[in-house]
Amino acid sequence: MEEALLRAVLFGTPLLLAGLGALLSERGGVVNLGVEGMMALSALVAFAVGLKVHPALGVLAGMGVGALLGLFLGVFAVSLRANQFVAGLALAALGLGASGLLGKRYEGVPLPNPLPEGILAALALALAFGLHLLFSRSRFGLYLRSVGENPKAADLFGVSVDGVRYLALALGGGMIGLAGAYLSLAYRPSWTDGMTAGLGWVAIALVILAAWQPLRAIFGAYLFGLLFFLQFRLQGSVPIPSEAFAAMPYLLVILVLALSGRARAPKALGQPFDRGR
Amino acid sequence: MRRILGFLLLALGLAWAQGDKLKACFIYVGPIGDAGWTYAHDVGRKKAEAALPWLETRYVESVPEAQALPVIDRFVREGCQVIFATSFGYMEAVLEGAKKYPNVIFAHATGIKRAPNVATYMADFYQVYYLNGLAAGALSKTGKVGYVAAFPIPEVKRHINAFTLGVRAVNPKAQVLVRWINAWYDPAKAREATEALLAQGADVFAFTEDTPTVIQTAAKKGAYSFGHYTPMLKFAPDHVVSGQIVHWDVIYMDFLKKVKEGVYTPKNLEKVDYFWLLEHKAVEMGADYGVPINPKHVPLLQKAQMTVGGRKVSVHDRIMALLKDMQSPKPTFDPFTGPIQDRKGVLRIPAGKKATLEELLTMEWAAPGVVGDWPGEPK
What we know:
The structure holds two protein chains of two kinds. Chain A is mostly helical. Chain A has eleven helices and no strands. Chain A is globular. Chain B has twelve helices and 17 strands. The interface between A and B is medium-sized, with 32 and 38 residues.
């Protein structure tokens, strides 16, 4: 039982971090479908810096790359008012491709001094609570929510819609970068092309499952982690085929989504803001 | 004038040199990555290209099975004379492409269907798995050996069975706990499957997945493991005991040389099937190239005893003797020699008989000692 809870937390941590990152920008009205690619590229940079310099600096480098990629997405999704879904998908592909190309020489290299997973897991938990306070108690949180719900009104009150969105993308990107760094420096201390293996997409689903609430994201991420572990723990000891276990986390998401029909997305989600219109 | 003539000659020479090269092209199912299936094929391709001056190669990686035919079209347009398709799932695309381009030679790894211009090939590990199983059986203190498995297909089942037969030859009470991850490449699933097996008491690990994740995870808890596909010693130098290592270049070079010499043509491949084992040097038992057993674990295996034909022998000596035998041109030992019953008690290989190639390629039964879900298990 303890083992299962530990696994739930340790596997849930990258999901939680990436999910919080996506959630942050979505609360500001920008959909980020680039998570998978952002995680992959920051995992690579974190690993490279971690190997050559120090794993702690690798974490910072990963977060930096994530933040930069968030700003990069902002150029298209905020300033150029491109379709956010298309821009995000392009970023996902770009990040995966670039990391595969640039990462060739780090493949097959073990990391001699990996980071303890526990510290990063605790940090992720703290970030979730921090984000909750940020949304509910801070001025920036108020601005962010108003930009996500009604950018026109926020603009009238003198809030820089684009500025808030850029900041949200950068901060969120940093968290997604941290998720990547966790993968390559702690969870699986090495680098391989495609090592995110779909976690970024699950993180995007997690945002919806969490109904855009950071505290619910903790619950959702750990639930995923628990199911993920249990599918291998229970396999063979109960008369359910292994393929059904593999589908379990996703079936659960569908179930929860169906039951939590009332969860409401930020009103301006996915809509580029254009002052002139 | 002389200069122009010189250039002309040079250009002609270059064109001739270019035209003289045999162009072989590879379709990879995954990213080349740091280890595993596609990486190993790419190592083979590079070695062949380095060794054969008349060879030119090209590859496309991460080709989904449905996209194989367009890649074949492209390769043929680019002048590929030999196309290697390296995933079972490319079978239909290869056969279709072979019909479309009757003058191109195709070779399909792990394939079971051939045509006049389609050969099949495979470097198989079942003997190596048996030898690794002997070591695993000797090293496990709990009697529980973990196996993180990709997909429940005959190839993987054959390997698990051979491994389990080895484990039980040393420790007849041992169990091999199998967990399917239903993926060739998924480090997160491999990690959590390993954690689940550790939680159930497994203390030695083998696996089929394309990353060293199982090794890294097992080593953290002090559990022994066996590398898969490529040398993985560096990922856990104290815990990797041995492993399976492939040498696709041996097959690629043999095949391409025979194409170059005209032995293989687009008309005579119907019966060409490589199923190459230790004796052909297409596979190797080892923690690293040339290191059959990690020297750190040799004393342990020398101390461990097993009974062979009523006599006590050290497990280490038994492994080395069998390895030598199976590497010889005329091996006398085969792991799948009867009598072998499956875990339900059905006799699968009669006494004194060796499993046929057909039986090996279609193996669905589970050996005694295998514990866990086994999709497709015969009644």
